[in-house]
């Protein structure tokens, strides 16, 4: 570390929040963690007759039994009604766009069945008239990165060839969008980079764009927003540091490409492929999020290098606001609908 960098670090405000207490985790001697923060969960409702008033039906399907990964499908119930009215003749013209969603949780917490993730996907499916596939990927530190990226790619491989009726019958896999919130936004970005070099292998699945919703990135050197919000009650800096320490490959710091894609101001070669494919990237954030500077920097870097980026950064609010206050999601869903329709 240079003298200048050390002097800069010494001038930073100190985060006073104990990250282990904040996250309610205990680090075990074998490198695993005990998670004591209980997130309410919501079961799937696969039977169309089990809740006739529900606007969205859900179903869980095993992805990889060896890895204990699975996906939850969200299907607008009106799609079944329309299909029945059409005498079960489902065509591509009346199939719905597909969003493959990756949930947040700092790469170490929550699942696709956690109520805040379930409710968000359910409302998104209803408001946007889309089929949502939410991926329950492996968590760190038991499964450090790139495990979550591998699970995200495996989900796409599964989707392209599955006989699952809700996808085969009602999802237009040629109009697919990868989306993630927070850590899921990070997964979406890196999974997108991985598959962009071999898109022909995903046919008939065709990705049209990536949606990074409050994406989770970091770095060694603090940004202005991280310094300003060092003790943010919703996402204190000490907690994100710990999440990255637990999620990154052992021996690497926060300037690893998984955490800091803008390190050295360089783009991976696969970004050229994203540019050639014509994928558009929607990047959303707000200035109440300690990571806003990193989100803006990523969007600027991609745009500078010719990637089609739609940046949407708002004033106020906080990290993950649309999940924690679902009433705030309406404006986001309008934005998502426009983005999907424009692709």
UniProtKB/TrEMBL annotation:
One term of GO molecular function: hydrolase activity
Cite the InterPro entries for this sequence: AB_hydrolase_3, AB_hydrolase_fold, Carboxylest/Gibb_receptor
Q: Secretion signal: which residues?
A: none
Q: Which Pfam families does the UniProt entry name for this protein?
A: Abhydrolase_3
Q: Please report the stretch or stretches of sequence annotated as the Alpha/beta hydrolase fold-3 domain.
A: 99-321
What is the superkingdom listed in this entry's lineage? Eukaryota
Q: Which UniProt keywords apply?
A: Hydrolase
Record-stated family: Belongs to the 'GDXG' lipolytic enzyme family.
The molecule here is called Alpha/beta hydrolase fold
Q: Which organism is it from?
A: Parasponia andersonii
